[in-house]
Amino acid sequence: MTISIGAHVAQDDPIAEAKARDATLVQFFLGDPQGYKGPEVRYSGGAAGLRADAEAAGVDLYVHAPYIINVATTNNRIRIPSRKLLQQHVDAAAEIGAKGLIVHGGHVNTGDDPAIGFDNWRKAVQATDLKLPVLIENTAGGDNAMTRHLDRIAGVWESISTADGAEQVGFCLDTCHAWASGIPLGDAVEQIRAITGRIDLVHANDSRDAFGSGADRHANFGNGQLDPDELAGVVRSAGVPVICETPGGPAEHQADFAWLRERL
């Protein structure tokens, strides 16, 4: 089984970053991951150039949406700009020919009924023109998070399944986040697939912190607390493209790729 493995890279020239790592896929931000300003393509050839050059180079592009997007919240001053930003990133990612847009599950406020967050996700899917797959990612911490625990992921999925465009919503499984949130890696793929019916992308990351810690701190493979066989097992079971969001540049990422391939 050949699984494509790439990395999260700087956004100025993702194709050069892919070549530096001998990778056939990369993930990057479009603009500021912490701001509401909207996406920007920093590639010198613009959106059309990036799309054409990536196709010519045989590199698949994935875009990570800004961390601040939270379409689940009951706070209108966050939810409404989040929906707008989500649509802008869907449009921009589709324009560069990206294979998917990864977005975090968000959270509700303390004391809010999680069901409101689930329904807000449904409304967001319904209201967004999904021109490419939007991949919801499981997150590591937060008591009120929408995609930290399996029961909450199930709530989100059940709710969005009734929305128009639901078939364009997929799942991105992050190994560090699963471990930190208290989801055992041994059967994580089976558990998630039983809920969502699909996994579209794996974020393969080791974790600096303990199981169930709620801490989101990635580590290079073998330098964290994940069992190497379980980490490789997730990648093998999922059988989908892999993005390493591990520290470092081309040399560190190539070492991570080699570590993972050895165990697959």
Could you describe the 3D structure shown?
With 264 residues, the protein is α/β, with parallel strands linked by helices. The chain has one domain (5-263): Alpha-Beta Barrel (TIM Barrel). The chain is 40% helix and 15% strand. The chain contains 9 helices and 10 strands. It has helices at residues 14-20, 46-57, 76-95, 114-127, 150-160, 175-181, 188-196, 228-238, 250-263; strands at 5-8, 25-28, 60-64, 100-104, 134-137, 169-174, 201-204, 206-207, 218-219, 242-244. The strands form 2 sheets. The chain has an 8-stranded parallel barrel, surrounded by 6 helices. A two-stranded antiparallel sheet has the order 8-9. The mean pLDDT is 97.
Question: Helices and strands in order, then pairings?
Answer:
Elements: E1 5-8, H1 14-20, E2 25-28, H2 46-57, E3 60-64, H3 76-95, E4 100-104, H4 114-127, E5 134-137, H5 150-160, E6 169-174, H6 175-181, H7 188-196, E7 201-204, E8 206-207, E9 218-219, H8 228-238, E10 242-244, H9 250-263
Parallel strand pairs: 1-2, 1-10, 2-3, 3-4, 4-5, 5-6, 6-7, 7-10
Antiparallel strand pairs: 8-9
Helix pairs in contact: 4-5, 5-7
